[in-house]
Hints:
Layout: E1 2-13, E2 20-31, E3 35-39, H1 46-53, E4 61-66, E5 69-73, E6 86-89, H2 103-113, H3 119-132, H4 149-161, E7 167-171, H5 179-190, H6 192-195, E8 199-203, H7 207-212, E9 215-218
Parallel strand pairs: 3-8, 3-9, 6-7, 7-8
Antiparallel strand pairs: 1-2, 1-4, 4-5
Amino acid sequence: MNALEVRGVSFVHGTGRSTTHALTTTDIEIAAGRSLAVVGRSGAGKSTLAEIILGLRRPTTGEVRVNGQPWIGRGHVPHRADRRLVQGVPQDPAASFAPRRTTGAQITDALRRLGVATGAEASVRVTEAAQLARLDPALLARPASALSGGQAQRAAIARAVAVRPAVIVADEPTSALDRATADAVASALLGLTGRIGSAVLIVTHDAAVAARCDDTFEITAAGQNA
């Protein structure tokens, strides 16, 4: 079964002469427990595609389906109760955490907001998520500002993993990391396909990361504003 299907999706800014094609018509699919690298030149629409799959933009044409069900298209958006099914790992994880609060508390908040777990169950899930993301559970008690770049990225992976999503979308997750840390973060992400069965889509310029994915999809043309 495909965890993710992108069918005829495109995105256009503006109208008439001011129209910009940020993403040309795109079709992809990822089975549960598989990984896909999305590659292409800067401005090709990779990040736009990631934002559409995450439900942050509505496509101009086409639709996205998750576990065979409509996820987002021109006529529908993800239902609040289904938001947990697709989780993102940002390029700049530090900006996605409140610097003075502990990472563990913030992952717990995400579980509560999504209606996944509270109390003792949430605590267990957070610890398990840290282990799956290859993040030392001791770091959960530290404020986010105390984490290194690689640790913050693994904390972001743990936050995504904690809700056990069908699809994880990572947008340039290794771009700001040194080679050794990038490899470790890629290992944490790609290991999730076998450990929890999520489909993993990684937008990347990193050829080494792309080579480790099960499949690769290249976006070859679009406008200026991806």
